[in-house]
Amino acid sequence: MLLHLIPTLLDEKMPANGYKLLDFTIPQLGLTLDGYKDLTICRPYPNKNYYVACRKVGARTKRNGLLVAIVGFMDRFTTVARWADLTGHVYRHTINYFIADHQFDAISDDMTLWGPLDKDHFPSRGVKVNGQEGSPMEVQPKIAVQGLPKGGNYEDRVTPRGDRERHEVFVVPTIERERLWTPHSLFHQIMPQADHAFGAKIAAYTPPTLADWPANDSGMTYEAYLHAVNEGVHSRMGESFTNEPQARQAYYTGRSVSELVEEICS
After folding, report:
1. Among 18, 62, 222, 235, who pairs with 44 as Cys (CB 3.0-4.6 Å)?
2. Which helix (H) or strand (E) holds 247?
C-alpha cells in the first residue's frame, strides 16, 4: 500500500522566520520521522502561506508532501505532525484516517486527485461524507496557526501554555498508484518520486486511551469519539465491512461525524 501524505501548516500572516517541523509519526507503523534529519519544509504552492513537509533528499526541492510504502493494507491509521515557531509554541496536528474501500492500493491527501482526471483511465474516486463537502482548499487537512475555520470534521484546542492542537477525521478513497504521477493531475510536477518513499511495516499498536477533551455539541469528548470509532465500527459491521467496499462506502456516505458517533454508541 502506498500513502501520499501532505503534512501542512497554514499561516495567513506568513512570518519572515517561518517554522520548523519537529517530527511526523504514524503510530500504527511504528514510524517516526525526524523533522531535521528525515524531513524538510517547503512551500510548493503559489500561495506561500502554506508550509508542507517533504522528504529531505539532496538539494532543496519543492515536493507536494511525502510517500510511505507499506506491506499490506490498513483500514485506518493516524498521523501526528508537530510544528513549532521561533517563540517555542508547538502546533500539533493529528489526523485519523478511515479508508473507504479496498479497490486500489494507494491513497492521497490531495483531493484534486480524487476527481476524474481522464475519463477513459481515471474516473472519479470521490467519497461523499458530511463535513467533507467543498473544495480541496477548504477541506484538505491542515493546521492553521490562527485557528482559522476550514471545511471537514475537526476540533481545535489551545493549551494553557498557548500551544495549538487540531484533531481531524478524514475519510479517503483508494486510488490507482498511476494517478499520482499522471500529467493530467494539478500537481504532477511536484509529486514526490516513487523511489523516495519511506518504507514501513504495520506494527503492534495500542489504540489511544480516553483523555480529557473539550466536549463538542453532542457532549462526547473527542477521545471518546475516536475510541468509539476505532473499537466499534468494525465489530458492528463485521466481516462484511472489512471485505466488501460497497458495505464500507454505504456506511460512511452521507453521515457526519456526530451521526457516526450516535450510531456507533447507540
Report:
1. 62
2. helix 245-252
Burial of residue 226 (CB within 10 Å: 0-12, 13-18, 19+) is: buried
CB atoms within 10 A of CB 180: 21
Please tell me whether the overall predicted TM-score, pTM, comes out greater than 0.85 for this model: no
Task: Express each pLDDT in 80-118 by its tens digit.
Answer: 999 999 888 999 999 999 998 899 999 999 999 998 887
Q: How far apart are CA 25 and CA 104, in angstroms?
A: 24
Cα 109 to Cα 6: distance, rounded to the nearest angstrom: 6
For residue 204, the 8-state DSSP code is: -
DSSP three-state, residue 5: strand
Bridging pattern class, strands 2-5 and 106-108: parallel
Burial category of 240 from C-beta neighbours within 10 Å (exposed 0-12, middle 13-18, buried 19 and up): exposed
CB atoms within 10 A of CB 261: 20
The grid coordinates of residue 148 equal 482559522
Burial group, residue 146, by CB count within 10 angstroms (0-12, 13-18, 19+): exposed
Q: Cell match 493494507: residue?
A: 73
Instruction: Give CA–CA dist 89/214, Å, rounded.
Output: 20
Q: What is the grid cell recorded at 209? A: 486511551
Q: pLDDT for 9-63, tens place per residue?
A: 998 876 656 789 999 999 999 999 999 999 999 998 888 889 999 999 876 678 9
